[in-house]
Each structure stands twice: as structure tokens, then as C-alpha cells.
Amino acid sequence: MKPEEFQAELAKHGLDLTSEQMDQFSAYYRLLVEWNQKMNLTAITELEEVYLKHFYDSLTLLFSEDFQTDGSLCDVGAGAGFPSIPLKIVCPQLQVTIVDSLNKRITFLTTLVEELGLDNVFLYHDRAETFAQRKELRESFDSVTARAVARLNVLAELCLPLVKKQGYFFALKAAKSEEELEEARKAIAVLGGKLVKEQDVSLPNDGGSRYVLTIQKKKETPKKYPRKPGLPNKQPLK
Predict the structure, then answer these.
(1) Quick one: angle between helices 103-116 and 19-36, nearest 10?
(2) Buried b (16+ CB within 10 A) or exposed e, 7-26
(3) Is omega for the bond preceding 226 within 30 degrees of 0, making it cis?
(4) Which regions of 52-127 does DSSP assign to beta strands (E)?
(5) 91-133: per-residue pLDDT in tens?
């Protein structure tokens, strides 16, 4: 997907990007490739692939009517900034908080945010398990997202404690898995959530499909969750 195709495809969804926003995506791509030479940020570096599988893919969250474009978003384990930084570029009024366990990725994101001229972006070097236990941050976000390879019951324990009541956790998955969803149903309920939507999203140019799960926070998460660092992965809730 060339940059001009990226712009045209988003326009079909009512997202009209300005020349300044297109310049920000261009700078994002340049910085991503530069920094990727000294640290492992992504295996995808070819321009058309980045625009399709990172930038456009991140923005599919905007196709959901449940996503609050002027609210607060926490991106757990954002890596190179996906999906939160593309969302911030397109929705400047969005308040973005990013947490990642690797300090070198936070260093990259700090440079990226400065060079793109983004405000109201807050970066934290922390484990998701301890981050969600901070009193000032717990259950404070309108939306929480994770674009990760972890199982859904693990992601739910790391993310749902951060979502405010009636807010949403959006899990971005590469593929639909009924087995993964079934094993996570109890964990989602225990953590105060309820699955409200399953959405298959097809990427343009035969780029494959993505699967977005929308989970609404219906009640407060018990204070014992998330458990100590490492436990959600080693002993997932079932």
C-alpha cells in the first residue's frame, strides 16, 4: 500500500488525512526504519508493508463506533507504537498513555513523539502487571488496547484492570480463534468484563484479515488482579 493509497482507503471510511498528518506518517516510517537498524522494533520494514500492516492495521480501531476518539487510551506493550501512535496522529485530541517493559522501546517512542510534534502522549517503562496496580492509573482509561501475540486470557488480566467502568478493552488479534475465546470467557467475567462484539476486518490489497474483540468493563476488577509479574503468562486464568 503506497502512501497515497493509504490516504485514499482511509477517506472511504470518512477519515480525511491532512498533508501535515501524511507528513507525520512519512516521518514515522523514516524513524522506524532508522531505529530498527540498531534495535529490533519490527520485522516489517518495506514501505508499502508498513503502511498496510502497521499504519492502516492500527487505524482499523477507528471503524468501531465504541472507540472514543477524544477520550483516553492506554496501549499495553505498544512496541514500536502500534496501534496508539497512528491513532494519535489521526485523532490529535486523543490522550495516549503507552506502557512497555523494554526501556529501549520507550527511548525510541520518546524520540518519535518529539519529532512528530505530538502532545498529550505519556510514556511509561513498566511491566503491565505493576502498572495496572498504580492507584492513579487503575480503572482510569476510556479505552485500553493490546496488539499482541499473548493469549486473550493473559491480555485480559493485563488490560481490563486499567479500563474504567463502562469503558472498553480492544484486543487486536491476527486471527479468529474460538478455542482462545472460550478459554478466556471465565477470565473476562472474573475481571469485570463482558464480550460485546467480535469483528473481522479485511485489510485492502489482499493484506489478509484481522480480528478485533471489543470487551466492555461492566464492574470493578478485584484488586488482586493483575497478579505478580510473570504469573499471568505462566498461570493464565481459566
Answers:
(1) 150
(2) bebbeeeeeebeeebeebbe
(3) yes
(4) 72-76, 95-100, 121-125
(5) 999 999 999 999 999 999 999 999 999 999 999 999 999 999 9
Residues in the chain, total: 238
Q: To 5 degrees, how large is the angle CA 111–CA 20–CA 95?
A: 55
In angstroms, how far is the first alpha carbon of the chain from the final one? 40
Position 158 confidence tier, pLDDT thresholds 50, 70, 90:
very high
The 10s digit of each residue's pLDDT in 161-175 is 999 999 999 999 887
Entry pTM: 0.94
Element (H, E) at 195: strand 193-202
Pairing status of strand 95-100 against strand 121-125: parallel
Task: Of 5-19, 34-48, 76-90, 169-183, give the lowest mean pLDDT range.
Answer: 169-183
How many CB atoms lie under 10 A from the CB of residue 225?
20
21 has which bridge partners? Answer: none
